[in-house]
């Protein structure tokens, strides 16, 4: 039987969680104090995903950059590709929270959106 030790990031508690696998199948999850811990641990050992955060250059705005993130989590193995897709990308002001900055980042089907607003600079 294989055991994987994790620290849950599902809530602020940070519970130490143990996942037991047999033949690649999860047979037991222990150590979590809430339902989110069980869900997180199962997902983490079968299909780990993350939210990607970064910044993108803004042209003609009151700020030079805008913070962005993936709308949903992406497979852990696609993080670098998502960040690379943003490299050298510039958007035109104004930018509003929730604006799609990049559609289908790295072929994940997940959009990258603005998490901050940047107004257009006055002339």
Q: Into which percent range does the helicity of residues fall?
A: 10-25%
Strand order of the largest sheet: 8-5-6-10-9
Radius of gyration based on Cα positions = 19 Å
Q: Report the order of strands and helices.
A: EEEHEEEEHEEE
Précis, in short:
This protein has 123 residues and is of the alpha+beta class. It is 16% helix and 37% strand.
Features:
single chain; about 120 residues; alpha+beta; five-stranded mixed beta sheet; three-stranded antiparallel beta sheet; about 15% helix; elongated
What are the SSEs and their pairings?
Elements: E1 2-7, E2 16-22, E3 25-30, H1 35-46, E4 49-50, E5 53-59, E6 65-70, E7 74-75, H2 79-86, E8 90-92, E9 100-102, E10 112-114
How does this structure look, described?
The protein is of the alpha+beta class. The protein is 16% helix and 37% strand. It has 2 helices and 10 strands, in the order E-E-E-H-E-E-E-E-H-E-E-E. The protein has a 5-stranded mixed beta sheet. The chain has a 3-stranded antiparallel beta sheet with strand order 1-2-3, with helices on one face. A two-stranded antiparallel sheet has the order 4-7. Strand 2 and strand 3 form a beta hairpin. The longest helix has 12 residues, at 35-46.
